């Protein structure tokens, strides 16, 4: 790992959640995976690094109505202490570009400033003791990805994809970028992997799964879990109450997962969370419960 990459104080593992293309449900995966890890007792934070489309706050029911005043390059003195308090929601610690600008605000920062703003904001947050920090990235290979790969130590990368050939191809390109930079790729998360009929409960393959078509870069990469397509996740977003929020509350209350339903999606997220934990350094039991969403 190059010497100019810095670890975040008191954060045991920093993971990037990436995708090769948009529309694969990466932010949905990030939020629900964070809550699944929380339900297993981990102390978890989310950093929403998408300047142009920061959706993590909205998925957690957090709204900012007041527009930001503007964007300027951020300069952080070497050795400066973090000073930004993260918001807390469902026991998660959160910082997002969406907490700095209004949810309907359009911005145009200079391309060479985007990475700097994201990196310095990330390093300026008082994360406290975390077992896992998930960084939700936009679907590109430019900024802020390059800034993060240059200046922040990443302990792992999760690639979110769908079963479509084009999505898999774009995922392979994304994987190669992180592998070339020396960031370990933990595995793939296959979202919208199959459809569960709400009437009969039957499983249907909506996207073509090609056993013979798989990019070389993905051949040896493990699939950590396959998330089915159902209405449960979209209903949770509409209610500002993510699918896994109830599991996070139950798990943190009793030190483990409790009162599990028959939700195939919940089971998939818990499977992925356990697979991620198995690849990372130790964790500690959570000690905070869900909180009300602030309006900022």
Briefly, what is this?
The chain is α/β, with parallel strands linked by helices and 296 residues long.
Task: Explain the overall architecture.
- With about 300 residues, the protein is α/β, with parallel strands linked by helices.
- The chain has 8 helices and 10 strands.
- An 8-stranded mixed β-sheet has the order 3-4-2-5-1-6-7-10, with helices on both faces. The chain has a two-stranded antiparallel sheet with strand order 8-9.
- The protein starts with 13 loop residues before the first strand and ends in an 18-residue tail after the last helix.
Q: What do we call the CATH topology?
A: Rossmann fold
C-alpha-based Rg, rounded = 18 Å
CATH superfamily: P-loop containing nucleotide triphosphate hydrolases
Mean pLDDT: 76
**Shape annotation:** globular
């Amino acid at each position: 790992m190059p010497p100019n990459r810095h670890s975040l104080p008191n954060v045991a593992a920093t993971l990037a959640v990436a995708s090769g293309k948009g529309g694969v449900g990466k932010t949905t995966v990030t939020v629900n995976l964070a809550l699944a890890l929380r339900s297993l007792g981990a102390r978890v934070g989310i950093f929403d690094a998408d300047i142009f489309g920061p959706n993590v706050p909205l998925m957690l029911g957090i709204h900012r109505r007041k527009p930001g005043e503007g964007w300027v390059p951020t300069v952080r003195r070497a050795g400066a202490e973090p000073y930004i308090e993260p918001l807390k929601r469902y026991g998660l610690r959160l910082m997002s570009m969406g907490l700095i600008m209004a949810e309907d605000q359009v911005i145009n920062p200079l391309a060479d400033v985007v990475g700097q703003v994201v990196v310095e904001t990330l390093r300026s947050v008082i994360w406290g003791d975390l077992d896992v920090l998930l960084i939700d990235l936009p679907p590109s290979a430019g900024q802020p990805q390059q800034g993060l790969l240059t200046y922040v130590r990443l302990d792992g990368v999760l690639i979110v994809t769908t079963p479509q050939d084009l999505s898999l191809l774009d995922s392979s390109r994304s994987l190669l970028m992180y592998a070339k930079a020396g960031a370990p790729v933990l595995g793939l998360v296959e979202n919208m992997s199959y459809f569960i009929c709400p009437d009969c409960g039957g499983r249907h393959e909506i996207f073509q799964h090609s056993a013979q078509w798989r990019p070389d870069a993905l051949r040896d990469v493990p699939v950590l879990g396959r998330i089915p397509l159902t209405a449960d996740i979209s209903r949770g977003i509409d209610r500002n109450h993510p699918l896994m929020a109830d599991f996070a509350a139950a798990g943190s209350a009793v030190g483990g997962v409790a009162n599990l339903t028959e939700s195939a999606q919940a089971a998939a997220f818990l499977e992925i969370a356990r697979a991620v934990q198995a690849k990372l350094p130790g964790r500690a039991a959570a000690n905070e419960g869900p909180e009300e969403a602030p309006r900022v």
